[in-house]
Amino acid sequence: MPELPDLSAFSHNLQKKLKGKTIRNIEIHSAKKLNATHADFEKALKHQTFKKIVRDGKELYFTTKDGTVVALHLMLRGQLFVDDKEHKSAVVTITFDDDTKFTMADYQGLANIRLNPEEPDAPDALATSVTLSYFRDQLASTKATIKNFLLDQHNLRGIGNAYADEILWDARISPFSICSKIPEEQVEELYHSIRKVLEHAEKQILKSNPDIISGEVRDFMVIHNASKTESPDGAKIHQKVAGGRKTYYTDEQELFK
DNA sequence: TGGCATGTTGGCGA
DNA sequence: CTCGCCAACATGCC
After folding, report:
1. Dihedral over Cα of A168, A8, A151, A155: its sign
2. Could you read off the pLDDT of A11-49 as tens digits, one per residue?
3. What end-to-end distance do the CA atoms of chain A give, in Å?
């Protein structure tokens, strides 16, 4: 359930906790779609040292000193732990020379690990390569609704259901607007809202949960929040199920069709 | 108590 | 080819 800002906060804290530690052992307990064998993972990681831990899209990338990359995707229910315990539903456990254990667990079994993942075709939502003109051209060439566009990881990577609603409210654009019909001025609003909402959220999360490496923080959300009935400006929040997930929006958001 | 929440994949129909 | 929608995955939470 963690989304982009949560994952950014996790990477920040994992970097503090795990950077410089040397891997004694890696155990993969269960993983449905491994892109390498257990032996490959062991060979690539044993005795290696983590140098850098970053978020990329909805994944966490752990890079070792020799350039090996381990990618973790938490999917819906993945949880991370840094401690000395065994965890139920562990997908992978990495043990370091100082006996610290890093575990990714998921009772649903969907969280996954990949070794040296291929470079994705779509840019991260916050990448500097996503310029206003790039974004404008992308929107101009699609007839999908803007919410579906933001959620589709083949366009921009990292935005999930809850933040898509927050971003669209911030830009005052209806989630059901057709991408190619959104006027220039609102496209620019949206472009800035993506950065503003996601960066603000990460700051909020780190402020209230400075050591967070798992779970999610949602209490500051103004629209995608089941405990709220009105937007900050007093408009009634509507709910509609689209594509199997709930969309929260208000009449303050203009519909372009 | 029992829906609801979440992301991704693959398949179907318009 | 493009787009929307659905099921499946499994369980903690209110």
Report:
1. positive
2. 999 999 999 999 999 999 876 678 888 899 999 999 999
3. 31
Q: Is the CB of A255 under 7 A from strand B?
A: no
Name the percent of chain A in helix, strand, coil, to the closest 5: 30, 25, 45
pLDDT at position A139 is: 96
Distance measured from the CA of protein residue A132 to the C1' of nucleotide C13, in angstroms:
41
Contact A88, A100 (CB under 8 A): no
User: How many Å separate Cα A115 from the centre of its chain?
Assistant: 19
Between CA A63 and CA A142 the distance in angstroms is 35
Residue A170 CB in 7 A reach of strand B: no
d(CA A253, CA A169): 6
Residues in chain A: 257
pLDDT higher than 70, residue A241: yes
A243 CA vs B11 C1’ separation (Å) = 15
Q: What domains sit in chain A, N to C, each tagged with a CATH number?
A: 4-115 (3.20.190.10), 132-249 (1.10.8.50)
Quickly list H helices, chain A.
Answer: 4-18, 38-45, 132-140, 146-151, 161-170, 184-208
